[in-house]
Design goal:
The chain is mainly alpha-helical and 311 residues long. It has ten helices and nine strands. The strands form four sheets. It has a three-stranded mixed beta sheet with strand order 1-3-4. A two-stranded antiparallel ribbon has the order 2-9. A two-stranded antiparallel ribbon has the order 5-6. Helix 4 packs across helix 8 and helix 5 packs antiparallel against helix 7. Its EC number is 2.3.1.225.
Length: 311
């Protein structure tokens, strides 16, 4: 019987060997080995998660500044100078609510552990404690020295293996993975909504200023008003297109239960196929409710399901 230490293979080596076999015997010998839940539970699950990446931090700050700029123009250039009090109240309440939810979703996506695998747990002692049967193996990531679960990928920025990693997004300074995909989807949705809302208000404000005196439609000078509105229009249009595309790709990825990396690498599907509705509930929570749209609600992410490794 081989010692347990020989049952831990580097991912690159094991995939290379399976590909070199050329036959189906290797695939027939593969088994799904149930591993204890604590293997794939992040050691930092209860602690604050924050990636110290200069590019990501700068992008996250820019994101907040752009939202605050939109807030400034909407409130002080368009709504407060308006003579229609009901128009200002309704649009101000709607815009600020959506902006608050967008920033809250951004914070949750940035400060939530995306599903990091414990670092350095691929030790001889730990593998022996798994009590693997003869011939069974587990995958080891050679970069972070961790036991790598199925559908996990190593992120060079986070320097960790992330479960169901979709991609690393610098705008949220974090990976989009199993535990924070809901918040990233909400972030893109709310940014798209406030961008659309801002564009609609800019159009109405331009029409109002053309019909009325430019000196009365804003507390700023006419040139300053035009510049501020044009910049907001450009920002709103740019982010409406960008976040709408991201939102659509994320929803498609969830419904097909295939991450962005898996689609890019065209990885063989080795996990059970579920309905689109089951995949949506696995990300946003069980059952469907208004909490799906709340960044303050933490879904279970299908933790009741049994996690398994592919070998």
């Amino acid at each position: 019987m081989k010692s347990p230490v020989h049952r831990c293979r580097d991912v690159e080596h094991s995939r290379g060997q399976s590909g070199a076999g050329g036959g189906t015997s290797c695939l027939q010998e593969e088994q799904r080995i149930p591993i204890s839940k604590d293997v794939i539970t992040s050691s930092s699950a209860s602690a604050m998660w924050f990636i110290r990446d200069a590019c990501g931090i700068v992008c996250a700050i820019i994101t907040w500044l752009l939202v605050l700029y939109a807030e400034f123009v909407v409130l002080f250039v368009m709504l407060l100078p308006s003579k229609n009090l009901m128009y200002s109240i309704v649009n101000g309440t709607l815009f600020n609510t959506l902006a608050f939810l967008a920033l809250a979703s951004h914070l949750r996506a940035m400060c939530t552990d995306p599903g990091a695998v414990p670092k350095g747990n691929a030790t001889k002692e730990y593998i022996e404690s798994l009590q693997l049967k003869p011939g069974q193996v587990v995958y080891k990531c050679p970069k972070c020295c961790s036991i790598k679960p199925d559908r996990a990928h190593h992120c060079s920025v986070c320097k960790r293996c992330i479960r169901k990693m979709d991609h690393h997004c610098p705008w949220v300074n974090n990976c989009v993975g199993e535990n924070n995909q809901k918040y990233f989807v909400l972030f893109t949705m709310y940014i798209a909504l406030i961008s659309l809302h801002a564009l609609v208000m800019v159009v109405f404000h331009f029409l109002y200023c053309f019909e009325d005196d430019w000196t009365k439609c804003s507390t700023f000078s006419p040139p300053a008003t035009v510049i501020l509105l044009i910049l907001l229009c450009f920002e709103g249009l740019l982010f409406l297109i960008f976040t709408s595309v991201m939102f659509g790709t994320q929803v498609h990825s969830i419904c097909t239960d295939e991450t962005g990396i898996e689609q890019l690498k065209k990885e063989e599907r080795r996990w059970a196929k579920k309905t689109k509705w089951m995949n949506m509930r696995a990300v946003f929570g069980h059952p469907f409710s208004i909490l799906w749209f709340s960044p303050f609600s933490t879904p279970d992410h299908g933790k009741a399901e049994t996690y398994q490794y592919v070998v």
